[in-house]
Amino acid sequence: MNLKSSRDFCRRFGIGHQAGAELLRLLESEAKHGPPRQREAMKQLRAVAAQGTSLADGMNQQSKFFPPLMRSMVKVGEVTGRLERTMLKLAEHYEQQVILKNDFIRAITWPSIQLFIGIGVISLFIWIMGNVTPSAGGEMADMLGLGLRGSKGVLIFWAYIAGFFALLIAAIVAFQKNLGGIQNMIPVFYKIPVLGSAIQTITLSRFTWTLALALDAGLNPIAGIKLALDATDSDFYRAGADDAESSIRAGGTLTEALQATSLFPDEFLTQVGIAEVSGTDAESIEFVARDYDQRAKSALKTIAGIATGTIWMGVAGALIFIIFRIVMNIAGVYNDALQGI
């Protein structure tokens, strides 16, 4: 279930439940929304709910469709009797994620177009070198020096490009799945100027939003922290759950529990500590979450700016290289012609 569908479902369900609508009727209505896979999931959810199964258990039977956070929070909402509030809070959480995602996509759209234009220009140049015959006969000079000409050369060039992106995607997947324990390098990544702090800010925003949501729904701090650490989708952060639990069981505050994990920067812990003094855990974390939401938006602009600059420099560098090669080849022709004078 994608972010937008999750947001819309939680919002409709929360409003309907708050208005007093019957659970089965709400699920029946939901079976009319979204793509076929979503409608089918809602039909199955209604079927098990009609048999007396709880909403959370019904979602767990379709764990490949309903997001883990949604399943966990629905269970908490049902146990605490605050399901409608929990669903509306979930909708707000997913809304923030949708906004961040859309902002990032908008920011990198134009750089991506520039990249494809650059690839298209180079491809056209390679094709011309293999399909245009000079007036003196023979082949055009290899302006790029890559040994690529014509349609075959274009296909080889595209294969190189595809190979590069395949390696990039493989690296991202390997990081997400923590292959070889690569996520242990996260503290090193955070030390990368500008980019590292931006990535850390986005991670902290996701953590605080989830923790605020869990505590507001009535989840105890131990389970709330564990759920929030899991929401970072990183084994590096998940590893801190036991330390946080030990601290709380020893009588520590929320701030002390987070400090015990050795995962969070001092600035973040200070902000949580100050907010914690002014209200309940749920209120304090929600205050911090809203602050980090704004920071995350700025961080995404930073990352998008870095991506834009990198793509622009790559395209510009390739075009400058082509121009340089053309000038050098022309200069070589003139130099050869002037040798006999």
TrEMBL record:
Residues covered by the Type II secretion system protein GspF domain: 9-129, 210-327
InterPro entries associated with the record: GspF/PilC (IPR003004), T2SS_GspF_dom (IPR018076), T2SS_GspF_sf (IPR042094)
Main location: membrane
Subcellular compartments: Cell membrane
Record-linked Pfam families: T2SSF (PF00482)
Keyword tags: Cell membrane, Membrane, Transmembrane, Transmembrane helix
Designated name of the protein: Type II secretory pathway, component PulF
The species this protein was found in: Neorhodopirellula lusitana
